[in-house]
Amino acid sequence: MHREYDAIIIGAGVIGTAISLELARKGWRTLNVDRLPAAGYGSTSNSSAIIRTYYSTLDGTAMAYEGYHYWKDWAQYVGIEDRAGMARFRECGCLVMKVEHNGYLQKALRFSDELGIPYQELTPAQIQERIPGCDLSLFYPAKRMDDPGFAEPTGGEIQGAVFWPKGGYVIDPQLATHNLQCAAEAAGASFRFKANVADIRTTDGRVSGVELDNGEFIASPVVVNVAGPHSHKINQLAGVYAGMNIKTRAMRQEVAYVPGPAHYDYPNMGCVTADSDVAAYTRPDNNMLVVGTEEPPCDPMEWVDPDDFDQNLTEQALTQIMRIAQRNPMLAIPNQLRGVVALYDVSDDWIPVYDKTDLPGFYVAIGTSGNQFKNAPVAGRMMAHLISTCEAGHNHDADPVKYRMEHLGREVSIGFYSRNRVVNAESSFSVLG
User: Fold this and answer.
1) Across the chain, what does the average pLDDT equal?
2) What is the DSSP string of 141-202?
3) Nearest in space to 245 (alpha carbons), one of 397, 425, 420
4) Mean pLDDT of 345-374
């Protein structure tokens, strides 16, 4: 069977669907192909879906704050009513501990001041008002449970924190992706599920479409790799992997679920937290506390084949719970682990690659897992602008395309996310981005 589209997007996660929506709104005839049975069923569905406005770089912070505005007015952005319901953004705010390890957040505060992002600096007493029973002892560096010094204070106490009110989390990330799919289809986009890409075809030195594993060829002069943890495999099929200075690979991650603190009204008082002293982040989920890791040096980075990895929870999930219990000593530790095992698509510096490639017509939106869910609407618009500009003849490598953010009115260089950049030393080199 031979079909032709203006653009084929490989992947129907939250960013892939956002790109198809924005290209379709520009009049492009798009097709998303995804190996899974529905949009958002891959790493997106397991995302903690945290919306926050602090990053380790100014560009990353600006993109996150721009993204916040779309989630704040989600129904207006989507523009249609999804019969399955509309995803909800719970704006509970984000509380981040000030510690030596994160420079006492001075850089993040400087970025917030430059971009006009509101925040409140908290005293130790104010931290304990927001997190009753919180133990402010310092435990850094983070340790594993078999370390003799695990859970023993190392001297001193946390002296403050920052609360960013414009933050929280999206309650159902898969539903948010379905909302985007419905909006994209209303704009003329198509989706194809249970379709596995087996090859990237080229003609006369340019991409010409994709071949599925059933032998079907689908023609298009533009192909966009948004394949999440499989992105490096797609780049290898296209022959562009070796030529990229910044590469990606799949990383196994565990996120634990534990009953929320019972000694205060956690469902209503709880907020997103990030605590670099114990190397853990949390967010509420009704009466549950979701616990993730900030990848401290003592935890091994588990790089895996995305088609063959252990999907069972391990001691890592319990370690994360025990670390956050250092800060919350009244937290009940469950007898049985609950949580999810999923994959990140991680770049060499944990900053995504939004770019063209050395193969004309082949674009990438990769290295996004872990910290880019919140940026999906911005990434969609930015990628649509980049693709349409490059396809009109602009040389992005020689003269990086500029993108003006709708809400902030800020012009940024998409070259910041180049595949050819050097590793960005300003990155946190963790899920914080």
Assistant:
1) 96
2) SP--TTSTTTT---S-B---EEEESS-EEES-HHHHHHHHHHHHHHTT-EEEES--EEEEEE
3) 420
4) 96
Please give the C-alpha separations between residue 335 and each of 6, 321, 366, 367, in angstroms, as whole numbers: 53, 12, 38, 35
Nearest CA among 170, 38, 163, 186 for reference residue 109: 163
Contacts of 56 (CB under 8 A, 6+ apart): 107, 108, 426, 427, 428, 432, 433
The span from the CA of 294 to the CA of 279, in Å, is 5
Show Cβ contacts of residue 37 under 8 Å, excluding neighbours closer than 6 positions.
Answer: 193, 194
Name the pairing type of β-strands 30-34 and 7-10: parallel
Show Cβ contacts of residue 38 under 8 Å, excluding neighbours closer than 6 positions. Answer: 12, 174, 178, 193
Distance CA 384, CA 49 (A): 23
Residue with token string 């009940």: 332
Element (H, E) at 354: strand 353-356
Q: How far apart are the first and last CA of the chain?
A: 42
Class of residue 338 by CB neighbours under 10 A (exposed 0-12, middle 13-18, buried 19+): middle
CA distance 167 to 51: 5
Instruction: Give the model confidence (pLDDT) of 303-316 as tens digits.
Output: 999 999 999 999 99
The residue type found at 146 is: D
The residues near 399 (Cβ < 8 Å, ≥ 6 apart) are none
Going through 235-337 in order, the beta strands assigned E by DSSP cover 248-259, 272-275, 280-285, 288-293
Q: What are the backbone angles phi and psi of residue 388, rounded to the nearest 5°?
A: -65, -35
Q: How many CB atoms within 10 Å of residue 310?
A: 11
- Tokens for 82, please give them: 């999804």
- Tens of pLDDT, residue by residue over 99-111, are 999 999 999 999 9
Which one, of 69, 104, 110, lies nearest residue 89 by Cα?
Answer: 69
- Distance CA(238)–CA(53), nearest Å, equals 35
Q: CA neighbours within 13 Å on the CB side: how many for 195?
A: 23
- pTM, full prediction: 0.97
Among 256, 231, 257, 253, CA closest to 342: 253
Tell me the H-state helices in 206-359: 231-238, 266-269, 315-327
Angstrom distance (rounded) from CA 4 to CA 312: 41
Tokens representing residue 248 in the block:
């990606």
Please state, for a pLDDT cut of 70, what percent of the chain lies above it. 100
The string of pLDDT tens digits covering residues 215-240 is 999 999 999 999 999 999 999 999 99
Measure the CA–CA gap between 381 and 120, rounded to whole angstroms: 31
